[in-house]
Amino acid sequence: MEQSTKKVRRKFRFRIKKFTIFTILLDVVVISCLFVINSHGFKNFWIPTAMTTMSHKYLAYTLYSEDTVAEVMSNNYIEKSTEIINLDDIVIGDTSEKKHYSSKYEEEIYTRDEGNELYKIIRLEEPKFKGYLTVIYDPSDVELAVSSKLGKVGQSVNTLVKENGGFVGINGGGFEDLDGWGNGSVPYGAIIKDGVLVWDHAGGSGELIGFTKDHKMYLTDKTPEEAIADGMVDAVEFGPNLIVNGKVSKIHGDGGWGTAPRTVIAQRKDGIVLFLVIEGRLPGYSIGATMNDVIDILLRYKAYNAANLDGGASSTMSVGGKLYNRPSAGAEYGGRTVSNAWIVTNKQNKAVPDVVD
User: Do 51 and 87 sit in the same domain of this protein?
Assistant: First the structure.
């Protein structure tokens, strides 16, 4: 009987020890979480990232008060650039391979893939994110593709590339996205196609992103009619502008756009156009990029003018009519439907592979 009682006491003590260890570990976890949540770095990551989504803003208010959210957002923003773009700075010239390069990034830009004179795709792998940079050697091959059912339903970038005889495409401007279920039918702001204003809707940023008849990237806050008079042939309304005339926009904090998938279009001084797509919201693979991250990449490759396009789940790159990147949503459907896309055509019949991997 006494021996049995001792065994019960030992088991009881063992359970007490296990419970004590568990509660200590739980306390450590809770204290650690509270420390992280209240840290300056986490606030500045979590709040802008949540607030720049269309349907997950509530995540910011789940952890923080309205006053805290407002304070963080007021300290993270991009000052609108006052630079007036100088199109004369863009001199479209020889983009053939060189004998000597100033950096490995210049070599990446100019060195063609065998049998492909139209474009090159550079894989980007950073500690926090992954993505792709498409180099388009002739800016005359870049044009805007618009959904054939504009106002009713959008189309995937894959479809826009295929239907418009393209080779590569990225998503363009934003659209109404109520609760994250928008289908690309109603674009925000203006759309100019072939020198004609084909769409104008409230909700735009007031910043037009496009190309002139001389194939120079034109960033302006003029009205669509004024931009067309200036020679704008294709454009969407989005932003913000990130680089104008080689000068980086002033960014406070992380810019207020958080960490997310990104799509950016840019042009170098020699006319080469860059399509940048960053993958994100994929834990364990790619978290996403801030505006500062994006600018760092663009400067490596000597972007002279650059503007942000619609990001998040819309960030899509299509090659050969097939989804090329890993979007944060909609991959099983070939990517989200959008209202427009910037695509690469082949007007001069340059050498390009018949099949693209």
Answer: no
Same domain, yes or no, for 84 and 35? no
Using DSSP, state whether 234 is helix, strand or coil: strand
Is 350 inside any structural domain?
no
Between 63 and 326, the more confident residue is 326
User: Does residue 20 sit in the same domain as residue 117?
Assistant: no
Considering the domain boundaries, does residue 121 fall inside one? yes
pLDDT at position 30 is 44
Residue 351 counted as domain residue? no
Contact 239, 205 (CB under 8 A): yes
Does the pLDDT of residue 286 top 80, yes or no?
Answer: yes
The reply to whether 237 falls in a domain is yes
Pairing mode of beta strands 196-201, 142-146:
unpaired
Tokens of 204: 């735009």
Whether residue 230 sits in one domain with residue 122: yes
- Dist CA 312 CA 321 (whole Å): 21
Q: Among 40-44, 76-80, 111-115, which stretch is predicted with the lowest mean pLDDT?
A: 40-44
Q: Backbone phi, then psi, for 189, in 5-degree steps?
A: 75, -160
Residues 70, 85 share a domain: no
> Nearest-CA neighbor of 177 among 54, 273, 305?
54
Please report the pLDDT score of residue 207 as a whole number: 97
Give the chain's length: 357
Is the pLDDT at 26 greater than 60? The verdict is no
* Token representation of residue 347: 């007007």
What domain range is 61 assigned to? 2-77
107 and 247 inside one domain: yes
> pLDDT class for 49, splitting at 50, 70, 90?
confident
Q: Say how many Å lie between the first and final Cα of the chain, rounded.
A: 77
Which pLDDT score, from 0 to 100, does residue 5 have?
61
Give the count of domains, the chain: 2
Between 225 and 4, residue with greater pLDDT: 225
Residue 247, strand partner residues: 244
CA distance 299 to 306: 10
